[in-house]
UniProtKB/TrEMBL annotation:
Keywords, in A-Z order: Membrane, Transmembrane, Transmembrane helix
GO cellular component, as recorded: cytoplasm; membrane
TM region(s), chain numbering: 12-39, 97-119, 131-149
Any one GO BP annotation for this protein: magnesium ion homeostasis
Domain CNNM transmembrane as annotated: residue spans: 8-184
Superkingdom per UniProt: Eukaryota
UniProt name for this protein: CNNM transmembrane domain-containing protein
Keyword Membrane found: yes
InterPro entries from the UniProt entry: ACDP, CNNM
PROSITE patterns per UniProt: CNNM
Key word Acyltransferase present: no
Pfam families attached to this UniProt entry: CNNM (PF01595)
Amino acid sequence: MSSHEACCGTMFWVYLLSCAGLVMFAGLMSGLTLGLMSLSLVDLEVLAKAGTPQDRRNAARILPVVKNQHLLLCTLLIGNSLAMEALPIFLDSLVPSFGAILISVTLILAFGEIMPQAICTRYGLSMGAKAAPIVRVLLVVFFPVAYPISKLLDWLLGKGHVALMRRAELKTLVDMHGDAEHWR
């Protein structure tokens, strides 16, 4: 049975702030995984060249980070996993074990998965651009573990999953764009 920190002591606040930081970090990793990995390189290059001025800036910030998609994916998933695994350990110092598990699952589900993914689905480009410096640091920190896994993925799945449209898909997209009034 582990000992629990008494409320309002210094270590209590250290553990509590650590838990909050871990939930926010897990949320950032989860949101960025969905937000950055859902942006194809082709879409980003189009936005970088022909988007609105803000989209051009955002796409230009994201492109260097997303170029090696498997390395990015491994980095974000390793960061997310570390945060999710560490949270119950810190919570266990504050509450009984069953409470740590319940609180951990609830916090991660609500604030580490659902909310960040909903936000990054809608604002993936701008969130990815704002978080690009953090992602660059994480790419360096997790490189020793993420790189070999990413190379294995490259070998198994192929490097880069370029989503090029077939002629019929491109024609439909152009038709939809030409009929933009229909979608408003």
